[in-house]
Amino acid sequence: MASLQDIRRRIKSVKSIQQITNAMNMVATSRLRSAKEAAVANKPYADKMAQVVSDVAANAGDFSHPLLEVRQEGKRLLLVIAADKGLAGAYSSNAFKEAVSQVEDKADTEIVAVGRKTREYFVNRSYTVASDYIGFSERPKYDNAKAIANDIIARFQSGEVKEVYMVYTRFVSAISCVPETVKLLPFGQLSQEGPHAEYIYEPNAADVLGYLLPQYLVTTIYAALLQAAASELSSRMNAMSNATDNAQELIAKLDLHYNKVRQAGITREITEIVGGAEALK
What is the pTM of this model? Predict the structure, then answer.
């Protein structure tokens, strides 16, 4: 049986862990508010950008562009967005499972890793990590998305890869987020069915669309980074909240065990005293 000192030491250790998890929960909760606002504020812009590209494509006629080129040769590139840090529940592992499910041939697949955990996961499993971006998973900036998009465009236009997919986690609510896969390149059918807005193009619709396509890619990646940041913070908030609650339950059990051991020690001492007194009679 553990001594009273051992139990007191265990209780002290659990209380220290509880303070840490509670602090991380409060930090994640605070950051989640701004991350959620950023993701929600960006969505109308991303949706409008997609609509404008669709409208311009409808008026561009027979349009060709390097980002629309369909190839049969080349590797498959996966842009995988996950966390820089752990302690976020199953957030990163769920994204990795989704990414692995998209891999048809490991030797024919390259990874662009966003997040330190992403890089470690795929390097340790002998995947080819073409490039990695770390240090901003919780607070992505537009420049981060632009750097990633430029890297992907360069690899696609060089003929190194034939298609590009993005795996990220879509933020649904504070208690729900869903891993998703989106095809980035080559762009599919840009023009959607239905009525389209009419614009005056200068110099022409094809040139305007050629300028918009790289911007559209940056916007798509930036929106995914914002969604992933909100998902990461919500997952960490929930994980740390559960850890704090579990620590409180463990402390209560240890307190009860401590009192039982203490009571047993007192009872034993009383028994020994009574037994000694009886022996002296």
Answer: 0.87
